[in-house]
Write a structure and sequence with these properties.
alpha/beta; Rossmann fold; GMP Synthetase, Chain A, domain 3; nine-stranded mixed sheet; five-stranded parallel sheet; 16 helices
């Protein structure tokens, strides 16, 4: 799985020297997550795989329940290669739906449950979806009408109260609906004891002989531009990153993972669900992120690993009941999906103990393509103040190029390009977009960054988020990192807004820490003392909370479109 030979400046892969023997050694991943499940069942059938509030499901039980889902889908006419959309929160139902679809030979389209009708319509039509698995509430409220004008012919609904009895009112705020006459109940189907379709060997366990080149997921992303496109994550892509995590994180045997990131997001799917499965560990689920619920789960389950956006760690640190003991069991905490300010890393370590390890990836490279290895700490660039996102793996080559595709020397900024076994083969039925974004199989990320001579990668910002103020380039990340050093700032986002004189000017949106009360002008003055005159925000607006995606990434585009205060 090594990259092709090249005369590239980056071919020497200096980052490999920063990896230990386990992190840089060769790996031999299973062919698919279903194969990993069968291995885990053979090795530890009674170990808890899923913990959901007070509910527990063993590896054997998950295998049998997902077999039954697969058998039902096949009996309803689902065929190999058909697409199954799964629209659920972090619950056992999500895991059973995905594994069942794979065992039936299908491709899964994980869909954000916060999507509105038009967004779901695009996914169902573009993916030519045959089966839809969703919550009973979503089906009743809007998905029935949405699916009616699509190729969907099989519907399973579930209530995420299933497989637990605690009913935590902080997140499980809904009631079970009567079973819809035009859908089958997912939990009932899972418990019915159906046999999974065989793979030709008669054991009925490996779903048509899934292989590394088969498409496991079509993950919809805006990519570098344009309307959402489906990145075709193969089983090989997924299992490579999961195996690199198993061998490289130095977690104990049977590790406990807490699913902070949503499983429908590529980070949650690969770095939590599949990585935990591949390690034979226990995956703790809590429906959705709520800081009090998460801290209680930390105390109850004593997890070894979690990954989440920086905004989640900000929320945990601000909770009135948080203590260092909540984090004492962790061996590794990772951050991804949103920029990680250096000030947050240090404040978190000073307050609670753990060092948050940065990471970088995209849907198109199946989550991580660079991370901070255990035993290392990410350096901070002394010029820009940017925290390194980590180093690539031994089989990955990251290059930095200018607008003409010429490689930039170490330390110089340009677009980040990625080549490796985690990079997807392309976009679903989008040959032109595939050719543009993956020339010769190399991913053009659309992110601006640089690499130092030791191999540490730094992400400056998205190309499209750059602010042009009177002809000067301003990267929002640099201003945000300064704002995060202010003791009153909980969250910060910087965008460019129209300005009659400067063309664009810098505007900062801020949410405050509990108890803080600062005048907006004070934040502008704070940045003015620490940044060049063209970089500091001329406008500052304070909001109770900043808009975010379901994975916790702050939505700059929504802030750009807000009317003036």
């Amino acid at each position: 799985m090594t990259p092709p030979a090249t005369t590239s400046l980056y071919a020497a892969r200096p980052w490999v020297a920063l990896l230990d023997e386990a992190q840089r050694g060769p790996v031999s991943p299973d062919d698919s997550p279903v194969h990993a499940l069968r291995r885990a069942v053979a090795e530890s059938p009674d170990r808890t795989f899923l913990a959901y509030f007070d509910g527990r499901l063993s590896y054997r039980e998950v295998d049998e329940l997902s077999d039954s889902v697969a058998g039902h889908l096949a009996a309803r006419g689902l065929e190999r290669g058909d697409r199954v959309a799964v629209l659920l929160q972090n619950s056992p139902l999500f895991v059973l739906a995905v594994l069942g679809a794979w065992k039936a030979g299908a491709t899964v389209l994980p869909v954000n449950p916060m999507y509105k009708s038009g967004e779901v319509t695009h996914v169902l039509r573009d993916g030519e979806v045959a089966a839809l698995i969703c919550s009973d509430r979503a089906w009743d409220s809007y998905l029935r009408d949405t699916a009616a004008d699509s190729s969907v012919r099989i519907v399973l609904t579930g209530c995420e109260l299933d497989f637990q009895t605690r009913g935590d009112a902080r997140v499980l705020t809904f009631e079970r609906l009567p079973q819809a006459p035009d859908a089958d109940d997912l939990a009932t189907v899972a418990k019915a004891g159906h046999k999974a379709p065989g793979d030709g060997d008669g054991d009925g366990s490996l779903g048509f002989g899934l292989g590394p080149s088969d498409i496991a997921l079509i993950s919809y992303t805006s990519g570098t531009s344009g309307a959402p496109k489906g990145a075709t994550n193969t089983h090989g892509n997924i299992m490579y990153n999961a195996e690199r995590q198993r061998t490289g994180l130095a977690l104990p045997e049977g590790p406990v993972y807490f699913a902070m990131a949503p499983l429908f997001h590529i980070t949650g799917m690969v770095c939590q669900f599949i990585a935990c499965l591949n390690s034979g560990g226990t995956l703790v689920l809590a429906y959705r992120f709520e800081s009090g619920v998460v801290l209680d789960a930390f105390a109850e389950h004593r997890p070894h690993y979690t990954v989440g956006p920086s905004t989640a760690f900000m929320a945990l640190a601000a909770h009135p009941s948080v203590t260092p003991d909540h984090f004492s069991s962790f061996v590794n905490i990772s951050s991804g999906g949103a920029p990680l300010p250096p000030a947050l890393v240090e404040k978190f370590r000073a307050g609670f103990g753990p060092y948050i390890r940065n990471g970088y990836g995209l849907t198109e490279c199946t989550a991580p393509c660079a991370s901070v290895p255990p035993g290392r700490e990410a350096p901070v660039d002394p010029v820009s103040g940017t925290l390194a996102v980590g180093v690539p793996g031994p089989d990955t080559v990251v290059r930095i190029v200018d607008d003409h595709g010429q490689e930039m020397p170490f330390g110089e900024q340009g677009e980040i390009l990625v080549r490796g076994p985690q990079v997807v083969p392309g976009y679903w039925r989008r040959p032109e977009a595939t050719a543009e974004t993956f020339p010769d199989g190399e991913l053009r990320t659309g992110d601006i960054g640089f690499m130092d001579a030791d191999g540490w990668l730094y992400v400056v910002d998205r190309k499209k988020d750059m602010i042009n103020a009177s002809g000067f380039k301003v990267w929002p990340r640099e201003v945000e990192d300064v704002l995060y050093t202010h003791p009153a700032v909980r969250e910060a986002a910087v965008v460019g807004v129209p300005d009659g004189y400067r063309g664009e000017t810098v505007k900062a949106y801020i949410s405050l820490r509990p108890g803080a009360d600062e005048d907006p002008a004070a934040f502008a003055a704070y940045c003015k003392e620490r940044l060049a005159a063209y970089k500091y925000p001329r406008q500052v607006e304070i909001l109770p909370d900043l808009p975010k995606t379901a994975s916790g990434k702050i939505l700059r585009r929504e802030l750009r479109s807000r009317p003036p205060a």
